[in-house]
Design a protein that fits this description.
- By secondary structure, the chain is an alpha+beta fold.
- It has a 3-stranded antiparallel sheet with strand order 1-2-3.
Length: about 90
Amino acid sequence: MKEKTCELCLRNPVQTTEHHLIPKQHGGTEGPTVILCSACHRQIHALFSNEELARFYHTPERLADHPAMQGYLKWVKKQDPAKRITTRKSHRKR
């Protein structure tokens, strides 16, 4: 992990990880990636299955346009970048 700017919430500096826009198990090993803070990365995987990510949510814009992510991003942008953010599992059916 490195300290950079998260490409979704734009908080800086935060501990970041690389997110494969198309999950590796669906052929995304060599595909495009984005740099995300660990909180945004965990939130994406709590909200979406790997099938949903591969099929539709494979761009930062599509991820950010989902209503659940919009609410999350609005909230997380106000959080201290040094704060460890807890992610809750989604209640939506997959």
